[in-house]
């Protein structure tokens, strides 16, 4: 039996479909992320909690409808607009919620999970915005719920807090908790979990997050959170040097990953086409920061704009390899000249941060990590 089961859940208003029919099941120990816009994500959470009535379908929690108070208390929710009692100290705030729910959690353990072990006696008014969000996450843990629901938790969250959040989710899943997250960006959703869906006008679509060769291999290393010292550890590329590639696979020192990515030299002028209405725009490859596949459509991300491209990611990868582009994920190709940071979230979760004006962040597959390090010489 699934812990949470949504069956044909939908919401309409005056013949307008606000939320298409959704089918989803979540079990204990599972983390599911849904990439959607703010309005639909908030609407879905409010439907699950019974805050508003659904137009159709059903919601089952432990096989029963969400009508009893004790069931709702087993679901902890974070909303972006949640407030705090600023005059309280962190420990007192968590004890207040523990008393409210009639539970006796280990406050030191909760503070450690939320990265607030050194903030126990700090007044909430003195905390920054990211620390306050982590306090909300701690409040959810105090409740000792079966299901934790997060509404776009990484929005306006600093990198340190993102690392703490992701490690916290891994640990909670190991403890048998079910986790549901909404995310405004596909990158954020993919980086948090392997169970990712995109909410389309037709309903939920499962996003494949693993490369075929990665999915076929048995992972010898569990997806465990990093140690406290490793949370701060990520690679920063200070110099903007072109990536070094092996000139001869025989001289690659047995490094198959780097040798397999031996680059041909550009022999001809290459332009990448994008069609906008009745126009075809031709881009120089080096204008492109990265390419994303979304709903089967390749999208070219430049500094300020996004343009659709009719070519598939496989076609683009073959054409752009000579220009320093790298297939970092089954849904992403990145211009290595634009990579500024390689961030390790957990042992199996990585992201690339670019040096474009938006400081774009894109996922890096686990099985691409070593190859990328060899290519960049780091």
Automatic annotation (TrEMBL):
MF-aspect GO terms: ATP binding; ATP hydrolysis activity; DNA binding
This protein's UniProt keywords: ATP-binding, Nucleotide-binding, Transport
Protein name, UniProt field: ATP-binding cassette domain-containing protein
Positions of the ABC transporter domain: 4-226
PANTHER family in alphabetical order: ABC TRANSPORTER RELATED, ABC TRANSPORTER, ATP-BINDING PROTEIN
Pfam families: ABC_tran, LytTR
Domain HTH LytTR-type: 272-378
Stored InterPro entries: ABC_transporter-like_ATP-bd, LytTR_ABC, LytTR_DNA-bd_dom, P-loop_NTPase
Domain of life the protein comes from: Bacteria
Similarity comment: family membership: Belongs to the ABC transporter superfamily.
